[in-house]
Amino acid sequence: xxxxxxxxxxxxxxxxxxxxxxxxxxxxxxPVNLRHxxxxxxxxxxxxxxxxxxxxxxxxxxxxxQTGNTIFLALGVAGLPADSKHLQWLRSIVSISSFMLxxxxxxxxxxxxxxxxxxxxxLSFLLQGLLILITGILITADVIPQKKPNSDRIFIGIPFxxxxxxxxxxxxxxLGFSEIPTTVLTSVYNDLASDSRLLAKNNPKRNRxxxxxxxxxxxxxxxGWLSRLNEGFGIAxxxxxxxxxxLAAAWLWxxxxxx
Length: 259
Hints:
The protein is mainly alpha-helical. The chain has helices at about 1-30, 40-60, 65-75, 90-115, 120-140, 155-175, 185-195, 205-225, 230-255.
């Protein structure tokens, strides 16, 4: 009898393991239910405000708001502002280029695995979180200065944070929530003002637009107050990175399209 148990136990173990792996694989490749999938994007708006407020105060450039960086690029080429001691255009063009690279990488991840599949969203938000945390680690280690916009070392951090913002926008597009661009509010304000059902009781898109604007404002306020501290920008990055990692983990338990 013991001999039989010893012979069958490994067989049972080998039978259970493939079934578990198969279920996990099916779970990861399943499309998520889009009903409440906008919630992580609303949270991402808060993170944009938090990071951009800190980055502008510390480094004189935006990580997510590339419209502003385009204007900074134009002013930098013209040699403005006059008291700028460093190449404003270079900070802006590095941010814009890195943003586009991050968007390209995240979009290719979405195209490869499937835009609304769980594994795609987990990888996208995990990438975003890691890029923020890497910058936070470098700032904490004093590899990158927190409040020296004219230091060449800020060019180490700008690509990580701008690429994160690009990946974030790609995620919002992949999920199909064009009303939550997550990095800019110009189109949001326009869509709110031109919405013929603005005051309607049931208007989900309006609600999401208002939520995005409010969360970005709150993030910017928090980022501004943190920037008053000597280590404030680093704190903002650690908070933002941890939130993004938690969002990546949350997709693992998020309902799929069949639930």
